[in-house]
Amino acid sequence: MVAEMEDAKTQAGIEWDGGGGGADAVLGLTAGGASVSLCYHQAFGPHDDLVLLEAADDLLPDLLRGRVTVRGRPDEEAVLCTPSATYSMKFVGTSNSVFLIPPGEPSAPCLRPDNTNGDANAADVMAAAIKLAPGNIELVRTAPRLDKLRSLLLERPYILDEDLGDGFQHKKGLYTWQDLCKLIQASDGELLDGLNTLTAVEIDGFWRTVDANSVNTILDMILHNSVLYDWPLNAVPENDVLSVMESDGFAHKIVTHCLNRFGTKVEQETRSFWSLDEKRVCLQFARRVLGAGKMKLANFMDKWERSVPSGMRVDIQMLEGEVLCDKLGAETWVHAFSVADLPLMPAERFAALFRERLKWEWKDLQPYIRDLRVPGVSSEGLLIKYTRRTQPSAEAEPIFTAR
């Protein structure tokens, strides 16, 4: 744009000297009743590469320091991302004329609407408009679009003893951090949170989930060695377990990943220990049992209780957001239905829920929507937008159906 202005100035060989300045003339309008005359800059035109962006004050530091990126594929609506937030970008037209005036003194030539040069001796303060803006891009805080992240990571989960080989074909379905930044419409902070939620791990530069069977194998070996070496489940020594597991052929990074997935690291003086979390471990065994399909609740509880490590106790409350119970006659049946497998966008989430059940009691519905986060919209607002609530009496459990 500066080059265009300088080029126009050179061609015309005229300097506007109408007294005042370009944008400075407008910024200087402080006195009551002050005015400024407007002329067309010699380079006035459509300038389609120039678009106004409306940004709140809290966005300015990131914008001015170049800490924002625009993300989205050609077939997607673009979003603007700061290091920690995502904003939808929507063009909003305006009914008023908005002229853009270059900064500084008006050294470039100007033309009046009648295509004549202004009178250099005129007393009016003049400003040169270089573009008429039809509107601006409005930024609205939005939830990160992470559903695509899950599908990408599921293309090629990590499997024990795999051999990636060399060449492009062997890397197909694998994604680096840079790849994900290009493909996922989310800020860096939100993308990292999404990877953590999906229990992904970076392996040889690629972000991946770990195959369920591989996770089960590693967990079984950790528990087996805990019995073999008499390690308390709330104080598994890190160096010892890693040494033993590596001697059995398990990669250090994958073992550490699984320890972090099922436990919490505890530092004690000069040694590190892992305390395995009862709920997370029991939940993993529940998923295994439910892999056989729908079963009677009593049978499930019996098999689940017998499968977990000694000293751990199961509780049906551990399975909120993981299983659904259905009453069929006198029997209660249970089957897997995990919130982790549901869409992250509210519209798709509620659609999936009502495909599973036409009616939901609040105690059953709540675990499947409490993780939804939409900037500026409360959980009650989501319920109003996507559901109908009925309650036969004040004492009755409210029932939710699709709106």
TrEMBL record:
Any one cellular-component term (Gene Ontology): Ctf18 RFC-like complex
Keywords attached to this entry: DNA replication
Any one Gene Ontology BP term: DNA replication
Pfam families hit by this protein: Dcc1
Domain of life per record: Eukaryota
Keyword tRNA processing: no
Entry annotated with the keyword Zinc: no
Recorded family membership: Belongs to the DCC1 family.
Protein name, as recorded: Sister chromatid cohesion protein DCC1
Organism field: Panicum virgatum
